[in-house]
Amino acid sequence: MIASATDTAPSPLQVAAARYRIEPRPAGFDFDGFARKQADWLGEARRLGARLAVLPEYLSLELAAAFAPAVHADLGASLEAIQSLHAPWMRLFTRLAGELDMHVVAGSFLLATGDGRYRNRSYRFAPDGGHDWQDKLQLTGFEKQLVGDGIGLIEPGDALGVYPVDGVRAGTAVCYDSEFPLPVRAQREAGMRVLVVPSCTDTEAGATRVRIGCLARALENRCFVVQSVTAGEAPWSPALDRNTGEAAVYAPMDVGLPADGVLATTRGDARWAVAALDFAALDATRAQAQVANDRDWPGQHAPAIVRAKLVGTRP
User: Which 8-state DSSP code applies to residue 247?
Assistant: First the structure.
């Protein structure tokens, strides 16, 4: 049975997903410049009415632009260098979330865990000064690249959680994690109703995979999905060199909801995809659902179909 985060449906939650532009490395870029950029972006999201704003995966790697070319042109050196900015990062987003009275998912910070390894950690900052995080669980080939002695540069997370946002429970799936149904299902069964997906893709194929993953997770779990993306080109960075995709807010494709599952998406120069998540309307779709993937999920566990077997021709 899926847990319920509240006894009654909460008020609509206004959310904003960023199509965040990574600029070519500007002269004199430093942490103060990064902080001003965050205040500008998040201030716009708040003016658009957002109570939850989502920034993209790898956001912290933009900070590598503050270091010398020999550092920002090398992924390992970039990751090592930005560790000195982790504490200022935490203070910055704690302050902005409080000042703007808004929940902020600050993309992800590649955080050192020791022995030259890092975790792709997505922090959520609450208006009351608290924060929590979700580490990326599944790593891409780029993230698995090896350093000395065959050790991977980035290591996967090992825990999964959900967190409260204005009376509902949300969960984070960092980019590639959105393409895997079972961890998101576990979050849904813990009461998650909004899935947050900070992402970064450098090919059209990658952008398509994450978009389809988000749509599939919305369909399976009858939940909303809020996906942020990176945009622009930054040849100074091996991780942020090319960026594709559109930020979007997704819903299940059912009666009373968009037929294509898209509540909002960025177009042109728009920086934010903004939508009001109506949980009462979402709950009402169950009564007239054309399909109910969330309710019918247990059917997959029937003993006769848990494992497929080779069968011969049947008469």
Answer: -
Write down the domain spans for the chain.
13-305
Please report how many Cα atoms fall inside a 13 Å half-sphere around the Cα of residue 213, on the Cβ side: 26
Number of Cα atoms under 13 Å in the Cβ half of residue 174: 29
Rounded distance, CA 96 to CA 90, Å? 10
Looking from the CA of 215 toward its CB, the CA atoms found within 13 Å total: 18
Cβ 46 vs Cβ 100: under 8 Å: yes
Pairing outcome for strands 117-125 and 131-135: antiparallel
Three-state helix/strand/coil letters over 5-73 = CCCCCCCCEEEEEEEEECCCCCCCCCHHHHHHHHHHHHHHHHHCCCCEEEECCCHHHHHHHHCCHHHHC
| CATH class of residue range 13-305 | alpha beta
Burial 167-184 (b: 16+ CB within 10 A, else e): ebbbbbbbbbbbbebebb
Whether the predicted model's global pTM rises above the 0.90 cut = yes
- Chain mean pLDDT for the chain: 92
- Residues 217 and 197: their CA atoms lie apart, in Å, by 11
Q: What are phi and psi of 244, to 5 degrees?
A: -135, 165
Specify the DSSP element, H or E, that contains 79. Answer: helix 75-82
Between the ranges 283-287, 290-294, 304-308, where is the mean pLDDT highest? 304-308
Sign of CA dihedral 244, 63, 100, 136: positive
| Nearest by Cα to 100 from 156, 55, 42, 146 | 42
Strand partners, 249: 226, 264
SS3 73: coil
CB-based contact 232:25 (threshold 8 Å): no
Residue 309: both structure tokens together: 């077997």
How far, in Å, CA of 269 to CA of 252, rounded? 27
